[in-house]
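Can anyone check this?
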Amino acid sequence: MAIRRAATFGVLKRSFSLSHSTTTQALAAALLPHSEGRCATWLGVSFRPVVNAAALKEHALSLGFDTVGVCLAAPPPHFDAYERWIEKGYHGTMGYLARHLAVKSNPRSLLPGAHSIVAVTLNYNQPNPTRKGYPRIARYALGRDYHKVVKGKLTKLGSWVEKSYLGAQCRACVDSAPIMERDYAQMAGIGWFGKNTMLIDSKRGSWFFIGLLLTSVEFEPDSPAVGGCGSCHACVEACPTGAIVFEEERWQVDARRCISYLTIEHEGEIEYDTAGWTFGCDVCQEVCPFNEPRESQPLRARTTTEPDLLQTREWPSLDRLRVIEDEEWDVLTRGSAVRRAGAEGLRRNAAACVESLLPIDP
């Protein structure tokens, strides 16, 4: 029996052409199909079989996600750079980012038994014409709060994983969770970092949300995404406040000058001209060549087909918004990402926009 098993091991190793550790995992998948996602023992050796991710990806796409990839639940590769970014104070008044550093250093802080991270995207692009005298809101916040939309789909995906793989554990994360979602999406092959630090999919651009599903199942990982902006500096030159800077041999965003930060997360008065933006800012994405539709790249800049994201609302004028009462604000922003700015923040932003529209005295 031992000779027969040894012979089987040798045949499998030659047929898979894999290293010893990977061969052990391949054996688990081939000889123990019902052990997917669980640690098993064979010939006295403990191993965790790697699970083919095809069914997982198919189900993720069926839920409405646009792309899906998998990476290992390892520490984020850019954590040290992120830590230095915070040390320089580039996070502004977002003190919670510094407080969450320890948790962000390892995804197993969120799910102790995590072995894989499933990264998904959801397109949010839609027309966003400017209306004089009315608030200008970033495209991602035009529809229903994306946290609810993306997390709802991720929760369904997690339930499917837990039902499909015995003993599986999952945790759904959107950008409100203390995890470096762009790092893991890049590792999962979703996209690469542009100069504006946005994740860019060469085929689809950057108008998409990122969601992560941490799981104890060890799915077969994808290769990291590669790409680059080349000599293009469109976003750097277009940024109204010069927030995109090159330091320490890499491009980064000084949040203290970023209009998205200033109109959403910043506490206190705004010292920069917000260029007409009332909530968020899309300038660096609007000028990006990867967000321009081309005949050779038909997926770029497509309008989202997600019904919840297309349920836009009518916003009052800037004059009305800058004096809006808390009760009216509460009703107006329910189910919207714009609620993040708070009533006082929205009044402040609207007032700044109105001021920028006033004629300058000679």
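Reply from J.R.: I decoded it. The longest strand covers residues 116-123.
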